[in-house]
Amino acid sequence: MRGPAPLRGGFGLIGPRRERHVVQAADLDALALPVGDDGVVIGVDAEGRSAVLGVNRPTPYEVTLVGGLWTAQVLALRTAATGARVAVETGRAPVWSGLAQAAGGGQQCVTLHDVGRVPPQGASAGSPVLVVRDCGMRPPRGRVVAGPWQSVLTLLPYLSPSAPRLLRNSALVGVQRVSPDEAEQVGALMRLPRAAVESLPTLGDGVTLWCTPRDRKFVMTQGTEAETGLLGAARRID
Q1: Which of 43, 68, 118, 196 could form a disulfide with 219 if both were Cys (CB 3.0 to 4.6 A apart)?
Q2: Is 238 helix (H, G, I), strand (E, B) or coil?
Q3: Which pLDDT value is given to residue 7?
């Protein structure tokens, strides 16, 4: 019987001998690794690649979504599935209650609060938080704001007098189907190219243009079987 394999100082057991895998420097550009940013998968882009939204961050992160309740709820569910807590500030708690009960497998990871009544969440690297503000067309300034490990997603059903301030202060803006007049306003605020502005009134349900003043990406969000069973099919109008 052979004895145990010899030890190498600091490196443990000697593994099996294999030829080294070597790539020439000139061939490195041909390598493509299917790795995206860490975060929540919010759908697929025009090329069919996964689109990921990194909501759990060590720095404050503000997001505004001009769109429907369905998309905001899918984002809340998927964020909760990453282990983050979700605090929903809303004046229409009944439309969120089913989601809050279903999320977390019995643990209270999604909590509902009246407008202006969100308590401090105590966010940390080990317990990140997403605050979803579903406060209508004119959301008041929130008591709980974005901070380290605490992102804020504000949902606007349509553009309102509050929209320019929110869009300018947001690190990321999502826009779903809007009227031609609203598309022109969004285009001016976000410096969108003409083709993007003209496409906004024609977007299908579940499609969102995620943008900053410099970058933009169309993303299709499709519900999983569980999400569709809980929330129904994707829709822009609630």
Answers
A1: 43
A2: coil
A3: 43
| Statement: the pTM of the whole predicted model exceeds 0.85 | no
Tens of pLDDT along 28-49? 343 333 323 568 999 999 999 9
Could you read off the pLDDT of 161-216 as tens digits, one per residue? 889 999 999 999 999 999 999 999 999 999 999 999 999 999 999 999 999 988 99
Q: Give the amino acid at 114.
A: D
Look up residue 176 and give its two tokens. 């779903």
For residue 196, CA distances in Å to 150, 178, 235 come to: 31, 12, 20
- Can you state the angle between helices 69-81 and 94-102, rounded to 10 degrees? 20
Q: Which residue, 112, 74, 70, 77, is CA-closest to 92?
A: 112
58 CB neighbour count, 10 Å cutoff: 10
Residues in a beta bridge with 28? none
Question: Strands, E, within the chain: which ranges?
Answer: 7-8, 12-13, 40-45, 50-53, 61-66, 85-90, 110-113, 129-134, 150-156, 172-175, 207-211, 216-220
Q: CA-CA distances (angstroms) from residue 78 to 62, 63, 86?
A: 17, 16, 10
| Tokens (6 digits) for 220 | 């299709």
Q: Are 167 and 142 within 8 A, CB to CB?
A: no
Q: How many CB atoms lie within 10 A of CB 193?
A: 10
